[in-house]
């Protein structure tokens, strides 16, 4: 009894730690609020208050955002959260945070289901403190919701393989299907996972086919809108747009000055080589344990996906699994094999967000490896081993949290669109302001003004209607570029021309307006500078006199 109680206490402590790391100070950490987060939050607000998205489409299957579409589930679940807590960074990020917390539970259950309770505990430990999972659980990332749905679907699929019950089959396939309504990666991985799984368990399914007909039909009905969407611009535009197959530039290895033939400049060969190179990068220890994502918005100073000292446990766990894998272990390997595919067909090197599905099976395998080593030790060395493991976790977690909560919030603030909250608050409090032009050639800053200004959707719908047709599923989204909210305009500022426009307020991002352009000019009044945490200019606000 005492042993059971100690084990349960450890589980509760790990869950508590995981919850704190994912929920504490969620509204202000990370510092800044990225435009994609604002788009998700404002569309949830718009759905809750008007039943329409920011563009005025009623309960859409996909949401238009800038020049891409994103899938609907995150917005629809976030809508009541925004309705309850109000439109804020916290309410927009909350679903991702709760998804991350739920993942802790299911990773523990998967480890326990496939092997034993101790493996589940070690897998829970690894996930609770993993940099990648804490990071993506603290921002409004619809991919994190999709990952949790896939992980929970995997757990119930294991249950189904064990009990062959209609309930487990339905819950599992429902969760897998919902993950496909959450993020683009799952739209590729889930069907492939289903096909490969059927090749392993098809005979067992055939034996209980009578039980599965009705729930299978329900799932097919659920997926009909997604299937319909796959043939429309709203369904394929994002996936095709980021794929290297859509790029006009020559693939790596292309020799300029030579024609294309079978032996030289063979595009099929070069693209295949590129695909394999990108795919392999997602299993590279250098990327997974030491260097991490190259994009500053998707990474943390001095941290990678996992802590470096866990590499040996991944090797131990993997070596054990591949010897004589049982069916559940084979499914873990299938999951791991498919995880990097969506990211591999894009031209971006080591994109952690698009490859989130890869890191959950790695987490489980690392947890298994920790237990395998533990099990082989005698009682004395087990205590030393656990003490060393605890010390390694504590030190790495401390350095991670310092780099995440302090250092990265200074060095990466610009990458998280820091300053818009202060900018919107300042512009909105100006008395009797006239026209305001925000220097924004890509017209993406408008969503921050909608979000932080809490602009009522019906007001904005009247404005957006002037842009013309909003055919969601058939038109290229690049045709529609929102560039105005009331007296606010979002476009490239023609400084020589507009510095003569009396009364206009001009907003320049970063250091695009040097002091030499306005200092000493009586016709240009500096209203305010908004600074990044490192002291550099985030926004310069001037008014023409």
From TrEMBL:
Pfam families for the chain: PMT_2
Membrane topology qualifier: Multi-pass membrane protein
GO CC annotations on file: plasma membrane
Residue ranges occupied by any Glycosyltransferase RgtA/B/C/D-like domain in the UniProt entry: 72-225
Compartments, as annotated in UniProt: Cell membrane
UniProt-listed InterPro entries: LipidA_mod_glycosyltrf_83 (IPR050297), RgtA/B/C-like (IPR038731)
The entry's keywords: Cell membrane, Glycosyltransferase, Membrane, Transferase, Transmembrane, Transmembrane helix
A molecular function (GO) term: pentosyltransferase activity
GO biological process, one term: lipopolysaccharide biosynthetic process
Principal subcellular localization: membrane
Annotated transmembrane regions: 7-24, 68-87, 94-111, 143-161, 212-231, 304-322, 356-374, 383-402
PANTHER family found in the cross-reference section: MANNOSYLTRANSFERASE YKCB-RELATED, UNDECAPRENYL PHOSPHATE-ALPHA-4-AMINO-4-DEOXY-L-ARABINOSE ARABINOSYL TRANSFERASE
Name used for this protein in its record: Glycosyltransferase RgtA/B/C/D-like domain-containing protein
Organism whose genome encodes this protein: Candidatus Woesebacteria bacterium RIFCSPHIGHO2_01_FULL_38_9
């Amino acid at each position: 009894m005492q042993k059971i109680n100690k084990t349960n206490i450890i589980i509760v402590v790990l869950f508590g730690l995981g919850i704190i790391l994912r929920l504490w100070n969620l509204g202000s950490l990370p510092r800044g609020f990225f435009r994609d987060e604002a788009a998700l939050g404002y569309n949830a607000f718009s759905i809750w208050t008007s039943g329409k998205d920011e563009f005025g489409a009623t309960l859409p299957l996909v949401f238009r955002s800038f020049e891409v579409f994103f899938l609907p589930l995150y917005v629809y679940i976030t809508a009541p959260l925004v309705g309850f807590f109000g439109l804020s960074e916290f309410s927009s990020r909350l679903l991702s945070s709760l998804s991350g917390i739920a993942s802790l539970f299911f990773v523990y259950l998967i480890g326990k289901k496939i092997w034993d309770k101790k493996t589940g505990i070690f897998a829970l430990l690894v996930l609770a403190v993993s940099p990648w999972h804490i990071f993506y659980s603290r921002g409004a990332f619809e991919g994190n919701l999709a990952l949790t749905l896939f992980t929970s679907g995997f757990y119930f699929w294991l249950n189904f393989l064990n009990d062959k019950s209609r309930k487990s089959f339905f819950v599992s396939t429902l969760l897998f299907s919902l993950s496909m309504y959450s993020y683009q990666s799952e739209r590729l991985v889930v069907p492939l996972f289903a096909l490969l799984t059927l090749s392993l368990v098809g005979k067992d399914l055939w034996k209980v086919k009578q039980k599965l007909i009705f729930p299978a039909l329900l799932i097919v009905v659920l997926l009909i809108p997604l299937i319909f969407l796959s043939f429309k611009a709203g369904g394929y535009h994002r996936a095709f747009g980021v794929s290297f197959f859509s790029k006009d530039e020559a693939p790596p290895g292309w020799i300029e000055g030579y024609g294309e033939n079978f032996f030289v400049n063979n595009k099929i060969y070069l693209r295949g080589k590129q695909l394999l190179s990108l795919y392999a990068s997602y299993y590279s220890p250098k990327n997974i344990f030491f260097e991490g994502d190259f994009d500053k918005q998707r990474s943390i100073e001095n941290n990678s996906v996992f802590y470096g000292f866990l590499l040996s446990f991944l090797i131990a766990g993997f070596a054990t699994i591949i010897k004589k894998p049982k069916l559940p272990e084979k499914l873990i390997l299938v999951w791991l094999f498919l995880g990097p595919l969506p990211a591999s067909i894009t031209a971006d090197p080591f994109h952690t967000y698009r490859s989130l599905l890869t890191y959950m099976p790695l987490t489980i395998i690392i947890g298994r490896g920790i237990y395998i080593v533990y099990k082989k030790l005698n009682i004395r060395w087990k205590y030393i081993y656990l003490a060393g493991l605890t010390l390694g976790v504590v030190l790495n977690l401390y350095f991670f949290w310092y780099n995440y909560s302090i250092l990265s919030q200074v060095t990466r603030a610009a990458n998280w669109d820091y300053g818009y909250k202060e900018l919107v608050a300042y512009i909105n409090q100006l008395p009797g302001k006239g026209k305001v032009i925000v220097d924004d050639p890509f017209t993406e800053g408008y969503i921050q003004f909608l979000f932080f200004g809490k602009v009522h959707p019906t007001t904005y719908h009247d404005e957006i209607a002037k842009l013309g047709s909003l055919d969601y599923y058939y038109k290229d989204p690049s045709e529609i570029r929102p560039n105005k909210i009331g007296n606010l305009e979002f476009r490239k500022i023609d400084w020589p021309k507009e510095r003569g426009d009396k009364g206009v307020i001009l907003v320049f991002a970063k250091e695009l307006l040097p002091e030499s352009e306005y200092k000493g000019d009586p016709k240009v009044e500096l209203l305010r500078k908004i600074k990044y945490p490192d002291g550099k200019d985030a926004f310069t606000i001037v008014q023409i006199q």
